[in-house]
Amino acid sequence: MSIRVTVWGENVHEQKNKVVAGIYPDTMHGTIAAALNRESGITASTVTLQDVEHGLTPERLAETDVLIWWGHAAHGDVSDAVAERVAEAVWSGMGIIFLHSAHFSKPFKRLMGTPCNLSWREAGERERLWVTARQHPIARGLPDHFELEHEEMYGEPFGIPEPLETVFISWFAGGEVFRSGLTWRRGAGNVFYFRPGHETYPTYHDTNVQRVIANGVRWAFNPEARLADPTTAPNRPVASALEPIEERGPRLHHDGEEGYR
Amino acid sequence: MSIRVTVWGENVHEQKNKVVAGIYPDTMHGTIAAALNRESGITASTVTLQDVEHGLTPERLAETDVLIWWGHAAHGDVSDAVAERVAEAVWSGMGIIFLHSAHFSKPFKRLMGTPCNLSWREAGERERLWVTARQHPIARGLPDHFELEHEEMYGEPFGIPEPLETVFISWFAGGEVFRSGLTWRRGAGNVFYFRPGHETYPTYHDTNVQRVIANGVRWAFNPEARLADPTTAPNRPVASALEPIEERGPRLHHDGEEGYR
Amino acid sequence: MSIRVTVWGENVHEQKNKVVAGIYPDTMHGTIAAALNRESGITASTVTLQDVEHGLTPERLAETDVLIWWGHAAHGDVSDAVAERVAEAVWSGMGIIFLHSAHFSKPFKRLMGTPCNLSWREAGERERLWVTARQHPIARGLPDHFELEHEEMYGEPFGIPEPLETVFISWFAGGEVFRSGLTWRRGAGNVFYFRPGHETYPTYHDTNVQRVIANGVRWAFNPEARLADPTTAPNRPVASALEPIEERGPRLHHDGEEGYR
Amino acid sequence: MSIRVTVWGENVHEQKNKVVAGIYPDTMHGTIAAALNRESGITASTVTLQDVEHGLTPERLAETDVLIWWGHAAHGDVSDAVAERVAEAVWSGMGIIFLHSAHFSKPFKRLMGTPCNLSWREAGERERLWVTARQHPIARGLPDHFELEHEEMYGEPFGIPEPLETVFISWFAGGEVFRSGLTWRRGAGNVFYFRPGHETYPTYHDTNVQRVIANGVRWAFNPEARLADPTTAPNRPVASALEPIEERGPRLHHDGEEGYR
């Protein structure tokens, strides 16, 4: 059985900017998916912002084990309904990986509950990622650090909730640091944020970066059945209580009714 | 100096339901605020859903050190703009305490990034809260457990992110358990969820419950200056980099420009 | 490839107490191992306190992917050297599962850094375990709760550090609650504590309990190579610094020397 | 009321090394204590390794609200009994701050349950500390980053458990990063690790460093009464169960007896 990955690409820079199109003639999402398809046990395909419902219909999400998200220039063009649908899919058990500027995407902000802001500089400077969690599945097969000669800088403070685990921290030539590999769990879904990937540099052609993304897919994959309704709040009537109790005192609700939401 | 608390009350049940009005002739929010005003170093007042902008204007939030939220029947009547304003105030450093059915309020769901669902039963059954974090500031002055003879049951799983700390866990006569005192940090703001407080029982007259809420206020209070803009994502131009670097490679952005959001 | 499990049994009650011997004619550790050997992809064997070096030689630990620990009456008879060896194996990547009264074992206390204390009562009362982390790998295949009709009670507060994740919470008929399924990471090793398993009740014959232990084994298994020395603190001389720097100011140490420990 | 701080100094380098003695004519611990004594609401004094019981008698610990620990060359000379006594004091509610090379001290390793290792280089290079938790009490009054022109490098991976909160991350000129301000809770005690402070540089004369340590003292202070016995594991006999239960099945223990440890 193969892990089914959908790579969501904003697909704006590739169409409008010659530099980006030159680095990624097969688009960024296409490059990421192609690298994943060279891995055993992973099958990746792509959808984009421009597709109907941004390519993220309920059917598509139901068939996606892990969603990868890259967006930058058009966060605001993603419909609120699709962003909420993605969040619900995560709660039901879909894994999700947010790349680079997806820190400001609607689904990431929705899942974090924080501003997700940071400082930044686009100078093609050297980034060095240090593994902070030795032998973590997301760091599988990596050296203790690796470098990207040209990257955009993201600097702390990063406006996120404390993560479950910090897997990578980046050093930048200009003097900043950044928590660049972080995990959370939201409902039944595993969430991984990975920092590198500015569109004007060839980051997604880098073998270490490709390794991290493939590792992240395997880590984020939850083989359990997807929850049918991850938001349900069931009433448990007195008559079916696990221990014998008698109803006492006044009440507002009827047995088995829907609660207020 | 006193900690300025605003107690936000939905104020629906007290107006519509004779049982609730009988238990809380001064309303639930009024009862909570009155108990806090008996504490040294705390000054509490109230606002309600029915007030203009639900009483939560930017000015009011700027003067609120800790906001307490009780809502149940009318979560949907809270405007999205006010919910977002509350979240931003938390990120900027305002403390917030969510009580009981506020688990489904817009601000709580916004700050958690999860469904915040649970199971429930309204049978007036016994709840026993156990302190799980000994000598935690929120458990100050409490015995190792305390009971509420009549409460609504909330049962696990509780659809929240892993908390920073688990302070209380509840036992219910009907056979369920629930993490009933939980902390998180969101931006510069401290968040505390406290389970008890169903409107048809006299929970907010209970001295242990009052003690927890007052402790929670002191814990949630962040004496630091409020962040002017907790969502800012500043560009740091090459010319002002902390270490001398030279710009290299192509770029999309101009120095000092606003990034995409 | 199979996950190699070693079940460590204290093996005292089974030899001295007729009730325990009657419930577990194949010993407790033998029963646990037999259940694991019925799982695909897991190979389990046993060692005991009475074996040379308690059965936990360096060679044995090197060939153990996941160690399961059950002890109660003879925690003090475990040698400090073996306890430390177990901790180092965990740091290097061996998974470990502590069962029931192993909360007071030397390796658990060593790995937690806390007292690991709790309250307790031996009355054969009903325990009900609630899943708090839906679709977590350790809860795979379980209902939302399950019961053990006769168990020893363990009550909060449980003297442990905040866990990475809370997977189960127990309800007890006598009125207590307990966090009964908890995870941590220590170095490269995954740690799982699971509460049930008092020696005078048939807990390890229960299929749900067996399911949790098998799930725990798969969760705790780290397929990465074991770290050769998980405690090393390497000096990185100036000459091999990743960025060009010059030595400045006074120093105490010589290049490449061992630091103080 | 004043927070009573005890600064524990190893006091070896100051006596043996002219460079260190020149930078710290009043010793390192003396310098740290003097800075704290300039703060309102803090009273600091010092003890050293060479004192009877290293200055850390039960009486002294009982009168210490927050202990600060600096050690490097003589970790092994600290008696195991005193290290365990310090851990117990923390569990009972004493705050503790570990500075720099105290990452390898016995009490820190005991409280963490991990190797606490790292990589290092003594080159007097520039360290820049970034605040990662905005408006955190430990970062009170600090700019968003500050620099130490000459420091020893500590590099990731840092062999610690995931912290409660990451407050600072350091950038080093030679290319490494390090989580340099971290918090944990152990029992009723708050634990703070702060990285800077190599003995051959004037770090503890730096006003930002002094600010962090004073903030850390206020954060670590737990005003609650110290727990008399933080390791107790009380038996709760059936007769005094909170809910009426009857004893069922066989048992090993007598009512009220001490459990096995």
Give your account of this protein's structure.
The structure is a homotetramer of 261-residue chains. With 261 residues, chain A is α/β, with parallel strands linked by helices. Chain A has a domain at 3-114 and 180-220: Rossmann fold (3-Layer(aba) Sandwich), CATH 3.40.50.880. Chain A contains seven helices and nine strands; from the N terminus they run βαααβαβαβαβββββα. Chain A has helices spanning 13-16, 18-23, 28-37, 58-62, 80-92, 106-112, 207-220; strands at residues 3-9, 42-48, 66-70, 95-99, 119-131, 145-155, 165-172, 177-186, 189-194. In chain A, strands 2-1-3-4-9-8-7-5-6 form a nine-stranded mixed beta sheet. In chain A, helix 5 (80-92) crosses helix 6. The first copy, chain A, is elongated and about 70 Å long. Chains in contact: A-B, A-C, A-D, B-C, B-D, C-D. Chain B binds chain C through residues 128, 130-134, 144, 155-159, 162, 164-166, 169-172, 175-177, 179, and chain C through 128, 130-134, 144, 155-159, 162, 164-166, 169-172, 175-177, 179.
Derived from helix and strand composition plus strand pairing, the structural class of chain A reads alpha/beta
CATH class of the domain at 3-114 and 180-220 in chain A: Alpha Beta
- How would you classify the quaternary structure? homotetramer
CATH H-level homologous superfamily name of the domain at 3-114 and 180-220 in chain A: Class I glutamine amidotransferase (GATase) domain
Q: Any low-confidence stretches of chain A, pLDDT <50, length ≥5?
A: none
- The H/E string of chain A reads EHHHEHEHEHEEEEEH
Biggest interchain interface, per-side counts: A-B, 69 and 69 residues
Rg of chain A, rounded, reads: 21 Å
**Which percent bin holds the helix content of chain A?**
10-25%
Count of helices of chain A? 7
CATH fold category name of the domain at 3-114 and 180-220 in chain A: Rossmann fold
Distance between the termini of chain A: 39 Å
The strands making up the biggest β-sheet of chain A line up spatially as 2-1-3-4-9-8-7-5-6
Strand content of chain A: 25-35%
